[in-house]
């Protein structure tokens, strides 16, 4: 009886070990998959970046050029942000065109867009990071306009690590020729008090006022009201990376959904060209929001 009990215990322990090993393998598999998502994109600025990438030879780290687990800038609109933000008053926006086709209010550059523009405006080095790899490498200034002094390679980056004005990706500070950001979705009319889309001022947008399916969605997540536009990819009524994500800004009429850089682009995966959230075949990105 004692021998059988010992065998049973050993068998049970072995099964537990197998189960734990399986869980650990699964966790590692997920982690490697997540890393591979950005490692194979142009946002891998580390030494392991692909051919033709703007990249450094000094570190193999990938996430550090945007995020840090410690000493992050808590004033930034992106989590664990590791860069100084650009001067938010230094941009010329689409609003300056006084276009009669724009119904909604356009705010100054802010929200998640200012995080994107901390590289893509070309005014500061891409290695202008607060907490650089290595012990004692903290600098609240981010290293200044010329960055940390990494050695850069790539046709579209200068010796200081700033993006050159040689591709569309270098947006600069004049944003008049770019899709409006900081603009009210569907011309306004959608606020925290009326989040369903019934108040859309412009019927040429996905939302109840357009006569189409109620693609404009809202939900309360972590006590915050969030909005998005459902696309044909993924699960309807559930906010996913393949939806057009809208960001809360405060307009004259109250807080409501705003279109920002990351509404159309997901910086962490290049499943579609130029980091688009969905394929733009047949203008799929445009028609996710616009009814034309």
From TrEMBL:
The UniProt record lists the keyword Translocase: no
Keywords: Signal
Entry-linked SUPFAM superfamilies: Multiheme cytochromes (SSF48695)
Boundaries of every Doubled CXXCH motif domain copy: 260-291
InterPro entries xref list: Multihaem_cyt_sf, Paired_CXXCH_1
Signal peptide (residue range): 1-36
One Pfam family recorded for the sequence: Paired_CXXCH_1
UniProt name for this protein: Doubled CXXCH motif domain-containing protein
Organism (species): Azospira restricta
